[in-house]
Amino acid sequence: MGLFNSNGVSVTWCTLSEHCSARKDGMKLKLEYENSQVEERVPNNMIREGTTEKEKKLSFFESLRAGHERIGLVNIGKNESVEIGIDKNVTVVEFERVPDNLKWTDLFRALSTRRMGGACARDPDAAINGESNVSSIASLASPRQRREAYATIIHSSDDYVCGAVMLAHCLRNTGSTGNRDLVLLHDDSISRPKLQALAAAGWTLRRIERIHNPRAKRGAYNEYNFSKFRLWQLTEYDKIVFVDTDILILRSLDHLFRLPQISAVHDSGVLFNSGVMVIEPSNCTFNALVAHRDDIISYNGGDQGFLNEMFAWWHRLPKRLNHFKMAWKNATEEREWMGRLFAAETPELHGIHYFGVKPWRCYRDYDCNWDVERLRMYASDEFHRAWWRRYDEIDEGLRWLCGLTAERIDTLEAERRTAATMRFSDEHWKINITDKRRFVTVE
User: Fold this and answer.
1) Is the four-CA dihedral 193, 199, 202, 205 of positive or negative sign?
2) Cα separation values, 239 from 46, 136, 420, Å
3) Staple 282 to which of 19, 56, 212, 298, CB 3.0 to 4.6 Å?
4) If DSSP codes are grouped into helix, strand and coil, which group holds residue 226?
5) What is the DSSP string of 415-429?
6) Long-range Cβ contact pairs of 12-18 (< 8 A, separation 24 or more)
7) How many Å separate Cα 198 from the centre of its chain?
8) Strand partners, 74
9) Mind listing the pLDDT tens digit for each residue in 161-179?
10) How far, in whole angstroms, is CA 13 from its chain's centroid?
11) How many Å apart are CA 399 and CA 6, to the nearest integer?
């Protein structure tokens, strides 16, 4: 039994019947949600000391009679509710009971939770290596085959096509795909030859119409980044794991499919990073996201800030699943740390998120973030080399997608000259460029 507080949970209110396609296994469900609000819970001083548990319950419900709150009854019939004095504003929630042989520890290896400024996050180490005991869950699951997919999105520019090719390669190379599809959402900005190459890389292509961000300026980077909402329209899948195209995958992410929406890595404060997310597609959720475009204010002007407002309750994943690439103050310590990460047979990191200028947009010789003062915080030669080592593994027939345009080379050269003028102490601007792409440009 519980109170629905629209201020205390996510903005999206979608029933499971709206969320899932019709099932033949007889699942029973009746959910009726309304966007009513509960201003505050009943104060402790409303219940006098020495009262019985039954009297406390009746006192609690009596305090609700004068308000407009709706009371949710989980597996409690309306006849039973009348016995304890509730006869109005009732929402019945019915579902099949959990089998007696299913234990709580079968669902979650780590039971501890922590409060983080109003957001409840699971223990950061929960299920990181996919070690949670889910064998009993699998044995009790419906015989219906679950459909799952990895997904990413490219829109408004073809600058991230190379990243998508690398992502497909890494997902396959780490054994992440299995029977799962690789789905890439794209708009008309991607040319036919590049779409054909993406399909050859392993992506199932889905054309989409972009979704405009009403608060973005015309031509800004975030003008159409609400297009990511289209991921929730992939309703032929029960669950998808979204991965940004600027993330290098080093280890399998398959265990994420066991986790609920939204599971993601902590970004800052109580917020999650939208670079890797577990999503449960739903037309209801998609419609809610689109409907709130005008009244929800994104803290960073983009999809990440918006989604954090919409999904206040999220499940925290360890940083090593989506490790942010940042500069180190001590290059020696960085090299030693990177050696531990990559020298081992099994890397410690599952994914590296390349902030700033992406590796394929730089010369291979060094991380070009060093040449731009505002981006130097994202510079790391070790991570840069790690990406290019994986590049050498991809099919030679796809490497042209990572080429440099003449315009991009002009920009890189201008930034090197600026760095030289400013005499940056790292002196990357002195490095002799040997990258062959400097001399063979692409359109």
Assistant:
1) positive
2) 44, 20, 49
3) 19
4) helix
5) HHHHHHHHT-TT-GG
6) 12/284, 12/285, 12/288, 12/289, 12/310, 12/311, 13/288, 14/282, 14/284, 14/285, 14/288, 15/284, 18/282, 18/283, 18/284
7) 22
8) 93
9) 999 999 999 999 988 777 8
10) 19
11) 49
User: Which residue reads 């991570």 in tokens?
Assistant: 383
240 cis-preceded (ω within 30 degrees of 0): no
Q: At what angle do helices 331-343 and 381-391 cross, to 10 degrees?
A: 30
How confident is the model at residue 216, as a pLDDT? 84
CB-count burial class (<10 Å; 0-12, 13-18, 19+) for 287? middle
Measure the CA–CA gap between 297 and 378, rounded to whole angstroms.
27
- In 3D, which of 179, 112, 101, 113 has the Cα closest to residue 137? 101
pLDDT tens-digit series, residues 231-282: 999 999 999 999 999 999 999 999 999 999 999 999 988 899 999 999 999 9
Q: Which residues contact 43 (CB under 8 A, 6 or more apart)?
A: none
Q: 3-state DSSP: the chain helix, strand, coil percent, rounded to 5? A: 35, 15, 50
Q: Which amino acid is at 443?
A: E
Phi, psi (degrees; rounded to nearest 5) at 267: -100, -65
Per-residue pLDDT of 399-409, as tens digits, reads 999 999 999 99
Question: Which domains are present in the chain?
Answer: 2-93 (no CATH), 145-323 (3.90.550.10), 325-438 (no CATH)
Strand runs (DSSP E) across 280-367, as ranges?
Answer: 315-317, 323-324, 351-353
For residue 363, the Cα-to-chain-centroid distance in whole angstroms is 29
Residues in the chain: 443
Torsion of CA 38, 40, 46, 50, to 10 degrees: 90
Surface-to-core class of residue 3, CB atoms within 10 Å of its CB (0-12 exposed, 13-18 middle, 19+ buried): middle
Mean pLDDT of 99-107: 62
CB 317 within 8 A of CB 264: yes
Q: Are 89 and 4 in contact (CB under 8 A)?
A: no
3-state secondary structure 21-47: CCCCCCCCCECCCCCCCCCCCCCHHHC
Q: What's phi and psi for 272, nearest 5 deg?
A: -105, 160
Q: Supply 123's token pair.
A: 């223990």
Secondary structure string (H, E, C) spanning 372-387: CHHHHHHCCHHHHHHH
pLDDT at residue 7 tops 90: no
Of 104, 93, 178, which Cα lies nearest the Cα of 137?
104
Q: Tell me the chain's radius of gyration from C-alpha atoms.
A: 25
